[in-house]
Amino acid sequence: MIILILVLFGLAILGMAAYGYKVSAKTAEDYMLAGRTIGVVVMFFFVLFAVSSSWTFYGYPGFLYLHGPSYIYFVWGSVAGFAALYMFLGPRLWAIARLNRFLSPVEVLAERYESPFLRVILSLMLLVFIVPYVGIQPLGVGLGFKALTGLPIIVGAAYTVVLLVILVILGGMRIVAWVNIFLGSVYASALLGSLIWVFNRFIPGGLREAAQILMVQNPEMLSAPGPSGYFTPVIVGGTMVVGLMAFSWPHIVIGVMTARDKMLFKWFPILIFIFGGVFFYTLPFIWGTLVAPVVMPGVTGKEAADSIVQTIITKQLPNWFSIYVLMGVIAAAISTAAVQLLTSSIIIARDLIQGFFKPDAEDFQIIKWARWSVVGIVIISLFVSLRYTKAMALYLTEVTIPGFAQWGPALVGGILWKRGTKQGAIVGTLAGLIYLIAGLIYKPLFVGMHPVMPTIIINMILYIVVSFLTQRPSEEIQAKFFDEVDEFLEAG
Amino acid sequence: MREILRHTPGRIFIGVLFLSVVGMLFVTRYFTQKILVFGWMTLPFFAGLVMVVVWLIAYMIYFFKYWPYR
């Protein structure tokens, strides 16, 4: 039964990928940026479910379960960060890319700072931090497979990888965006449906009853610093700052460049605030802080906590519904990993191969390189994730996000600040990156702060100081990246 | 953002968002109290909800009434 349902689910995704291949324009712009035709509703599903990985089902509620409600500050920061990307950076980045036919955000910055060297640094840096995260998604599904069927983790991971690779290779950005609507609907309904079902069965009094039970049995779950004393006020604040850096996630930044027109940036934040912030992310929060601690108290250890939602569903709800929830998890994993995979392959094909070895490449060659790199990235990412297994919540917040953040100053400055220079961008980025790597190896270098804080401060200060100390960008660059962009946006 | 900072409504908009983030950081000191808003909302959840509502209102007023590219 399980096998049959998962085969049908997989065939549905593959069918959409094949259809996407059939209708695509076979140009690099179409494959990489959906022909710059994504409207506001598709963009919302595309971005929300590119962000909402299997982490929202495992890592997030698991960490809440262990440490109490304060971890939600990461989500509040992320909501603000995504909104800021679309309100503040989005219109200009979109306009620059559209006017100059740029296909990757790294290409935008390389041209803005007139630096092929910066292009290499940014490309390699983003790949190093994004690739392991791609591998975590199939492993998350493997965890769900194991909880539901008892099969080894590798079975679920392999199933996900096959779907993922075919979807990205055939479909490109447009169909990944469209498939995210389907996958996101499955995921959201599984998350919401399971929550309602568990409430009806175990906590008929609803949210208030759950909170009252915890107030008696486990009151530490309802406040900081949480059951293990982790969330001091400084840590809570730092967690929010980490979330704010969401504007620098490369697979989200590239989404901006797929927009159909500038009006998208006017309407899009409504969906982020209402459906993303208030509705969607509240579901795993309720799971992790109220439902799981009441229904299954006493679980300890990161791995057990990471799969607490799946465990409750598998043990307490009918088997057919557990399968549906697993489909939801697969959907979440694929929707995120597909966008990450596509982003990585674009960086490899456009910024590294075409940028350095074959500048006059034809579209079909760029697409071919992107497709081949998809296979390579999946293999490397799975190897890295299997070799260096770590709790999912921590990997995201402790390694990936600080890594993504290191191109933040160059990105923001390049788009918004005329005075930002090549030297400033290179020095700031390299300093932040080296500091981060050194600190991850030798923790005391972070002086008790979250990795993102000291590294981004150093990065930002150096970017600004070095920019002021070096020659301002040429008139030509200022016109191309600022004056012409202003005129284009004002003209409508 | 360059266009937002060029006029007074935009600067007010940015100021409101900035103050809400500062407020979020400030209120963390009260999170040790076991207060449940509406009987179930823990303080970290409620604080964020207020921030999102503030951002939503500020954004709607600014982007639909004052944003130069609207």
Number of domains of chain A: 1
Quaternary state reads: heterodimer
* Integer tally of domains of chain B: 1
Q: What's the total helix number of chain A? A: 22
Biggest interface, chains and residues, is: A-B, 51 and 37 residues
Roughly how much helix do the residues of chain B carry, as a percent range? 55-70%
Low-pLDDT residue spans of chain B? none
Low-confidence stretches of chain A: none
* CA distance, first residue to last residue of chain A: 54 Å
Q: Give the averaged pLDDT of chain A, no decimals.
A: 87
Strand content of chain A: under 5%
* Count of individual beta strands of chain A: 0
SSE-based structural type of chain B: mainly alpha
Mean pLDDT of chain B: 92
Topology order of chain A in helix (H) and strand (E) letters = HHHHHHHHHHHHHHHHHHHHHH
Radius of gyration of chain A: 22 Å
Output the CATH class name of chain A.
Mainly Alpha
